[in-house]
């Protein structure tokens, strides 16, 4: 049985409480970091696809290469309905992506060294607005607003 005391498993079981907590925290952090990166990539991929589909919709398939009129089977009502649905979906994905990136930056930025709560006030995930538009939650809903103001950019 003494030979089992030198195994990795036994050594891990006899680690100090601090080392065990650190090991668990490292595992959770790595898994969460990967999951966030995957979620961001998935949202960016969906957003790219919707943008491409919206661009493709503008090709109304004229009957000839030199014709300027849409094909005979063009349904303007269906076009407007589908394009509107896709534009709303595109905007929702943009907002989701901004919020997820904001949370990712909050969670995986350097922790404060002054002993304060690493996630800010009581673990809140709303950072103090800064100069970056993504740091200001108000601009997440209205892209025409200047960061840290309520005034439109082109006013």
From the helix content, strand content and strand pairing, which structural class follows?
A: mainly alpha
Radius of gyration equals: 25 Å
The helix tally amounts to 4
Give the SSE string.
Answer: HHHH
Q: Tell me, briefly, the overall form.
A: elongated
Share of residues in helices: 40-55%
Largest sheet: none
What is the typical, i.e. mean, pLDDT?
76
The counted number of beta strands is 0
Measure the end-to-end span.
79 Å
In percent terms, what proportion of residues is strand? under 5%
**Unreliable segments of 5+ consecutive residues:** 123-141, 145-150
Question: Your description of this structure?
Answer:
With 155 residues, the chain is mainly alpha-helical. It has a domain at 2-107. It is built from four helices and no strands.
Main attributes?
155 residues, mainly alpha, elongated
List the helices and strands and how they pair.
Layout (H helix, E strand, L loop, with lengths): L7 H6 L3 H41 L18 H33 L28 H5 L14
Helix pairs in contact: 2-3
In brief, what are we looking at here?
The protein has 155 residues and is mainly α. It is 55% helix and 0% strand.
